[in-house]
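Late entry, written up from scratch paper. The run itself happened at the end of the previous shift, but nothing got recorded in the book at the time, so transcribing now.
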Amino acid sequence: MTRATAIRVAGPPAGIVDVWCVPLEAPELPHDALMATLAPSERQRAARMRVGGAAWAAAHAARRAILASYLDAPASALQFSVGESGKPRLADVPGLEFSFARTDGLALLAVTGGCEVGVDVERENDRTDIEVVAREFLPPAEAAALERTPPEGRRSAFFSAWTRHEARLKLHGEGLTGSTPRCGRAPEMPVTVRGLTLPPGFRGAVAVATEDGNWAVRVREFQFNHDAVMHAKLETRRQPAFG
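Output as recorded:
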């Protein structure tokens, strides 16, 4: 896949963001079929992982299969590059933008027809010290709103706020892990963020850079089979903006 002119891009329509949910706790993932679609470097990375290698491989194979479906190309033929910000992109494929996130048990892939996008997902847990993390990492307005949230709903509210913040950062190619977050960074373009309705125990958000806030989220479910072919369940959800 070296010439953009040879690739048919059939991305989501204007005003639509596809968010694919990839379950990673399926009882029998088609391991061999999935590994066959990965690049050698991806297979080597998965093999080196002492914990979670199969889930990592499944998530990245699903990413390939989904993006390939928009391009009418084999999943194994996709090539990725990294921009100056560190954000992965499809090499030599203009007009299709994506953002990928993974947590224990679930991965998300957001796809748009050309506008910048960021997505994040987290699994709720009781281990995170939400007061400390919110104070050190969340923007002041988000941290203050969390403090005003009743205690019984504060933990869920924290993970919702966290994913909104991370989605904004990932849109710009930034992230909280392994780098110093720039909470006060002035955005270069208007950005809106929307929460996602996900399976119980998960929180997620998607951010889109567009001057028109009138966009919809299509939540789509990816299912594995032994040919590593995807089956999609589609539902359109117009979700409220969070700013």
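The beta strands are 16-23, 80-82, 88-90, 97-103, 106-112, 117-123, 191-196, 202-209, 216-223, 231-237.
(Scratch paper discarded after transcription.)
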